[in-house]
Design goal:
alpha/beta; Peroxisomal Thiolase, Chain A, domain 1; ten-stranded mixed sheet; two-stranded antiparallel sheet; 33% helix; 24% strand; binds acetyl coenzyme *A
Length: 349
């Protein structure tokens, strides 16, 4: 009897990435608040971030990355069956940001849904995308944040960390011969006992806004216990990376490139040391974009591909941690380098 080919599976077949044109360097922050380029750079590795223009909303930023991704794949928007937008900075309370994106893209046959998964939302979203793509349904997954609209510009301990942008991936059923990041495994976890440690607590149904709370600036307040977040980010991302690899039958030595969530260079370095991976196998562009939440992995992938760091035959590991707490990792086999289109407005390096 002829062997049955295992056609089940899915992969990322195109990437799109966008960052707003306005590039804000650390010295600009020092004009607003009591901080300095030296403090920000030594604590975080960040030199710049991109800030959405007035009126440039989450759906607009997400749609830009989504369009670039579909153009890269030369894929008809009407053939997309799911538009999933991972964001913590939604267009509005209701409806989902993804609905506006779906309309803008002309994805007329798609279901549009948001995921509020924190900085690991892109990888958790990939688990859902993979499940549908395996059934033959093309999924456009977009991680997007306009954190500049959500943060408190007077709070130096959080504001300097964040930036705006979006990364998109077209996830399709496995097709022999098509260049893709073939998804070998995804590991994702949440521990809601730490839900109050990191987030934006005002404006929802638990803490509705009143004129008084707005006067006191609570509508912009971000809660973050920095050192506790730091420690958990390192240990939980290490756990996710190891578990995702183990379940795929791989070891850390098999990994050619790690593309981690870009929160802070010190977190990335501590993770690298904990996993005992050579630093040149770990991609970072946090210096240029700061922490763009669920957008960071898509943007990082676009730049890693453009830099020629990803090649056919490699094993790539992505890993992220964020509010929830939630953490996730995914392992991919590169059957060929997927096409990329990006508009990242990178500054001089
Ligand atoms: N400029 C100058 N001083 C500052 C600034 C700033 N922008 N922000 C805070 N400070 C001050 C604080 O007020 C504090 O002063 P105090 O000691 O007088 O009270 C002091 O700096 C704290 O300094 P450190 O202890 O050296 O700061 P630390 O090394 O803990 O670094 C940081 C702080 C960068 C926030 C770190 O804890 C961190 O990276 N945590 C993880 C946070 C994170 O990445 N959050 C993003 C979301 S989660 C995710 O994406 C993984």
């Amino acid at each position: 009897m002829a062997p049955v080919e295992d056609t089940a599976g899915a992969g990322i077949v195109a990437i799109g990435a966008y960052a707003p044109r306005h590039r804000m360097v650390n010295d600009e922050w020092a004009q607003h608040i009591d901080t300095s380029d030296a403090w920000i750079y030594t604590r975080t590795g960040i030199k710049a971030r991109h800030i959405a223009a007035a009126g440039e909303s989450t759906a607009m930023v997400a749609a830009r990355a989504g369009n670039l991704c579909l153009e890269a794949a030369e894929f008809d928007p009407a053939a997309v069956r799911w538009v999933l937008v991972s964001t913590d900075t939604p267009e509005m309370w209701n409806p989902a940001t993804a609905c506006f994106v779906q309309a803008e893209l002309g994805a007329t046959r798609a279901v549009a849904l948001d995921l509020t998964g924190g900085c690991s939302g892109f990888i958790a979203g990939l688990a859902l995308a993979e499940a549908r793509a395996r059934l033959g349904e093309p999924v456009l997954l977009i991680g997007c944040e306009v954190l500049s609209q959500a943060m408190d510009w007077s709070d130096r301990s959080t504001a300097v960390l964040f930036g705006d942008g979006a990364g998109a991936a077209l996830v399709m059923p496995r097709e022999p011969g098509r260049p893709a990041f073939e998804i070998m495994n995804i590991y994702a976890r949440t521990d809601g006992r730490d839900a109050d440690i990191l987030g934006k607590p005002y404006g929802g149904t638990r803490n509705p806004l009143t004129p008084e709370l707005v006067r006191e600036g609570h509508h912009h307040r971000i809660v973050m216990h920095g050192p506790y977040v730091f420690r958990n980010a390192v240990t939980k991302m290490a756990e996710a990376a190891q578990a995702a690899l183990e379940d795929a039958g791989l070891r850390l030595e098999d990994v050619d490139l790690v593309v981690p969530h870009q929160a802070n260079q010190r977190i990335i370095d501590a993770l690298t040391d904990r996993l005992k991976i050579p630093r040149d196998k770990v991609f970072s562009n946090v210096e240029e974009y700061a922490n763009t939440g669920s957008a960071s992995i898509g943007i990082a992938l676009a730049e890693a591909i453009a830099a020629g760091l990803i090649r056919a035959g490699q094993i790539v590991l992505t890993v992220a941690f964020g509010s929830g707490f939630s953490w996730a990792a995914s392992v991919w086999r590169v059957t060929g380098v997927p096409p990329v289109r990006s508009e990242l407005n990178r500054g001089p390096s």
